[in-house]
Sequence to fold (89 residues):
Amino acid sequence: MTPEFIVSFIKEAIILTIIISMPMLGVGLIVGVAISIFQAVTSIQEMTLIFVPKIIAVFLALLLFAPWMLDKLTAFTTRIIVNIPTYIR
Fold:
């Protein structure tokens, strides 16, 4: 196992983490911007108005994207486990 291999392995894991987290972050961003625009238009400055809908939206996005995320993580883990003999040489 060379240092280059370890760096590429960690890079792949970080990229997978970013890709998997993007749907929830995107939904949270869209809901946050929509609520901010609503607050600016109506001059309502209630902090709980931001957090509760964002939490609900991110949870729903997690439920919606969970099969896709699980598929990506399972494929990555399977590839790692299958290649263990080549890693230890």
Notes: The radius of gyration is 19 Å. Residues 3-83 form one domain. The chain has one domain: 3-83. The CA atoms of residues 16 and 65 lie 14 Å apart.
